[in-house]
Give the backbone structure.
Amino acid sequence: MKRIVLDTNCLIQMLSRRSPFYAIWKAYQQEQFALCVSNDILTEYREIIGQKATPEIAESVVSLILHHPLTELYDPKFRFGFITQDVDDNKFVDCAIVANAQYIVSNDAHFEELKQLPPEFQIEVLKLQEFLQTISL
């Protein structure tokens, strides 16, 4: 079972039924992979979706995630600080490390910094299109 951490920008792109990435949201609903989140990540999901859509939609999405059987909730106690260009993105990295996730799925270029990490901290970062291909195989 794949275990991923999903950047907010990717979650937003997956939610519309008209999106080419809606298949990923559907695959999650059909329990094809586990989604690893932290309270910080859920707070960002709620905030950004609330801005882009409505607070009600944001609350529905977060509630669905929280009640999904393959959602894994983590509370990272240590802040690694590996991303320096946009320190707010570290919440995704910290969760991925604590969760021992296979992938961070993000289209954000700041995650490129992770390629410079020592092997024991390497986390594969996939773009949304690349992750779609892994679940379509």
